[in-house]
Amino acid sequence: xxxxxxxxxPKYIERLIKKKDLEAYSSQYSYTRFYAYLTxxxxxLTKVTVAVKNHKEKWYCKQVAVHGIHxxxxxxxxxxxxYIGGFHVGWYDMGIQRHQKWYEDGEWGWAYDSDFDPFAPVxxxxxxxxxxxxxxxxxxxxxxxxVLQYLRIYEQFPQAEYLVKMGLSNLAMxxxxxxxxxxxxxxxxxxxxxxxxxxxxxxxxxxxxTAYKTGKPVAEVQTLVAAKxxxxxxxxxxxxxxxxxxxxxxxxxxxxxKTSIGSYNDYFKACRFLHLDMRLPKNxxxxxxxxxxxIRIDExxxxxxxxxxxxxxxxYEKFTVIAEKYHTLQDDRTDGYICLIAHSPLDLIREGRAxxxxxxxxxYDQKFVREESLIFFIRKxxxxxxxxxxxEYSLSSRKVLQCYGYNNTRPDEKVxxxxxxxxxxxxxxxxxxxxxxx
Length: 438
Hints:
Low-confidence stretches: none
Number of helices: 16
Largest sheet: 5 strands, antiparallel
Helix content: 40-55%
Number of domains: 4
Strand content: 15-25%
Order of helices and strands: HEEEEEEEHHHHHHHHHHHHEHHEEEH
């Protein structure tokens, strides 16, 4: 394969590509797509990839890659492969692009064969018949797009033709399958008998071998293998431990119930929360999973709500105790401002909503009940019910950690002077007395 022997797209090939493209896409479709045609280059069977594009109701095409069947490298022009977004093509030379992209210079370069081989339907597959060595390769039956890759495999494993003619192009690309078929005559017969089951393009090689060895249906084995791969995540760790000795049974059950591993995991967690014995078959494998899934999930939410209510009640009770303990840190001695301690988590929520800051959430209520920091409200003396400024006070360092007004704005100097020069020294003296009394 030589650069100087790359010829322009033949007119009849261009017509074939345009016809195929217009059948699939309207003239308004402006994204780049790819097609390919087969030809010779220095005597070598070659695939030329063509990019096409619509612009202002006109149709454009250009050669962007040339792959030879026995070449490790391909020729490349005006195309780049991006990690995100796939292949990009520059169209400056066609006059439909204002500026020249950094990767397009109109000259042929080279790249590794496997790196620049986009999905591109071949428009003249019968051209392969001109090469005697591939005449009986079964290329006419090959249904995947990368025919050169198939022919390379066929040269190593002629038995690939047997699989392709059975409609198993997916398996004809798997060398493990081909090696097995070469040596194992019963396996070849098994492939023929089960050819309809084996046409799944997503079939795992391990599923094929397991189904052959065990005699189990291919679909059942594939479902089981896929499910085992899906259950490997951290979110299913408890489930894997609980079913360590009968994981296959669980996955078969899930398949028969036409549900998912995620739904069963939700059911499993709900049952554990409700303290149900998951060793009992009626809980482990309920006859009507959907019905019992919905029942257990409803029970779980009800129990969770009840538990949350108990936690909320305990939090409010503890919050009130702490607020009473430090009640003496409140201050109303000056004419301009007063300082009030929060008496409940609801006070924090109301303050946060009124002043558009985060004191009503982000765990300030928990810090309060743990006596890590206290929340106080600075109010104007003549407007004691209207939220004005919020401050957080550290009990360990005896310092003001935060002091903000509406939307986390900095209070004016008069407020800061009150906080730093009047209230904080007063609060520190009160804290000292509380500690001594304890």
